[in-house]
């Protein structure tokens, strides 16, 4: 018998939209409704038009390695062209990748002390790092990743903020939004694809500590020239940790932010690396994300759910934070969508 259920997916980030795709392909006659609190889709991968830069950028620069199969298949293998390389700013030279495991862990887990189970997962999946190819976004995640997924939703409701629920015993009977209530039938299924902070405020039980990330965007008249014609560099002995050069701007990412960084000092590091003394400070845009990811240390890792199922029999969860022992990233967001669909 054909599946004619209605699936209510809350959250139009990567996890929610990929869930919509998997459900619609598996059950073409089902109805898939996606709710999003913002007025645009994409979640943490959202595109923005920067007024200060006068160009489009992603919410933050995202890096995907070619070993991340689900993301690679969605984006396209041909986009993975960048080598993972590290540059020592003091020695003015490249550093072998195998000597930069600490920097790699910090970038992946956004904490200097990730849980050993998470580190084991990383090393088993990514080691050896040498030879890995990467993709990094430059205002391109929309067309490359999440915009093609929107078409699998039968209905997309933007500006719908999830405020609460009504339940009868162990089933959700009603979803409460800022724009109204949605009554659920016994066959309806709800998938929460919201972030851990919003989920905790609604349901409790996941009181995580969070880590911040800073992103700096510098508007350049042309793509910057880096050593060995690299477009992406990990930085050693520098305030900035990752440098990305696209045709319109240069971007610097700093993980595990515990202090305020000066954009002039960050720009000076770029000039030092290039052996170029800039006579002016370019237009820039700083974006600070105080809850960029949960802190993926041992204490927080223990709190992460190990299943897509919840107390309520018609409520399931997905999102990178729901994947215990794995880094919070695009790939795990997609894996969580695939996992939740196995239950459905």
Which runs of at least 5 residues are low in confidence (pLDDT < 50)? none
Q: How many β-strand stretches?
A: 20
Number of domains: 2
Overall mean confidence score, pLDDT? 92
Reading the helices and strands in chain order gives EHEEEEHEEEHHEHEEEEEHEEEEHEHEH
Helix-strand category: alpha/beta
Radius of gyration: 21 Å
For the record, the CATH architecture of the largest domain stands as Alpha-Beta Complex
How would a crystallographer describe the biggest sheet?
Answer: 7 strands, mixed
| Percentage of β-strand residues | 25-35%
CATH fold call of the largest domain: Polyamine Oxidase, Chain A, domain 2
CATH class value of the largest domain: Alpha Beta
- The general outline is elongated
Give the termini separation.
15 Å
Order the strands across the largest sheet as they lie in space: 8-7-16-17-18-15-19
Tally of separate helices: 9
**How much helix is in the residues?**
25-40%
List the main descriptive attributes of the protein structure presented here.
Polyamine Oxidase, Chain A, domain 2, seven-stranded mixed sheet, 344 residues, FAD/NAD(P)-binding domain, 2 domains, 29% strand
Provide an overview of this structure:
By secondary structure, this protein is an alpha/beta fold. It folds into two domains: 146 residues, FAD/NAD(P)-binding domain, CATH 3.50.50; 178 residues, Polyamine Oxidase, Chain A, domain 2 (Alpha-Beta Complex), CATH 3.90.660. It is built from nine helices and 20 strands. The strands form five sheets. Strands 8-7-16-17-18-15-19 form a seven-stranded mixed sheet, with helices on both faces. α1 runs parallel beside α9. The longest helix has 14 residues. The two termini are 15 Å apart.
């Amino acid at each position: 018998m054909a599946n004619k259920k209605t699936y209510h997916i809350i959250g139009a980030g990567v996890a929610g939209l990929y869930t919509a795709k998997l459900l619609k392909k598996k059950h073409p006659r089902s109805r898939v409704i996606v709710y999003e609190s913002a007025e645009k889709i994409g979640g943490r991968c959202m595109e923005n038009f920067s007024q200060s830069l006068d160009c489009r950028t992603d919410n933050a620069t995202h890096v995907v390695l070619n070993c991340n199969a689900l993301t690679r298949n969605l984006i396209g293998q041909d986009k993975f062209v960048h080598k993972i390389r590290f540059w020592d700013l003091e020695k003015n030279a490249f550093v072998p990748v195998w000597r930069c495991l600490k920097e790699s862990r910090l970038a992946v887990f956004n904490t200097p002390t990730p849980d050993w189970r998470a580190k084991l997962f990383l090393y088993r999946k990514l080691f050896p790092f040498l030879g890995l190819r990467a993709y990094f976004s430059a205002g391109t995640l929309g067309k490359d990743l999440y915009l093609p997924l929107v078409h699998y939703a039968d209905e997309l409701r933007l500006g719908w903020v999830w405020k609460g629920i009504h339940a009868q015993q162990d089933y959700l009977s009603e979803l409460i939004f800022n724009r109204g209530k949605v009554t659920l039938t016994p066959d309806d299924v709800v998938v929460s694809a919201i972030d851990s902070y919003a989920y905790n405020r609604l349901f409790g039980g996941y009181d995580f500590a969070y880590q911040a990330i800073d992103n700096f965007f510098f508007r350049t008249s042309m793509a910057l020239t880096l050593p060995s014609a690299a477009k992406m560099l990990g930085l050693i002995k520098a305030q900035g940790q990752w440098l990305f050069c696209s045709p319109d701007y240069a971007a610097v990412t700093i993980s595990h932010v515990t202090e305020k960084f000066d954009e002039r000092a960050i720009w000076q590091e770029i000039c030092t690396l290039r052996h170029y003394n800039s006579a002016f400070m370019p237009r820039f845009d700083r974006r600070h994300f105080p809850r960029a990811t949960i802190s993926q240390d041992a204490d927080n890792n223990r709190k992460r759910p190990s299943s897509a199922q919840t107390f309520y029999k018609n409520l399931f969860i997905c999102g990178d934070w729901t994947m215990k022992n794995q880094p919070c990233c695009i790939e795990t967001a997609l894996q969580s969508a695939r996992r939740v669909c196995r239950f459905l």
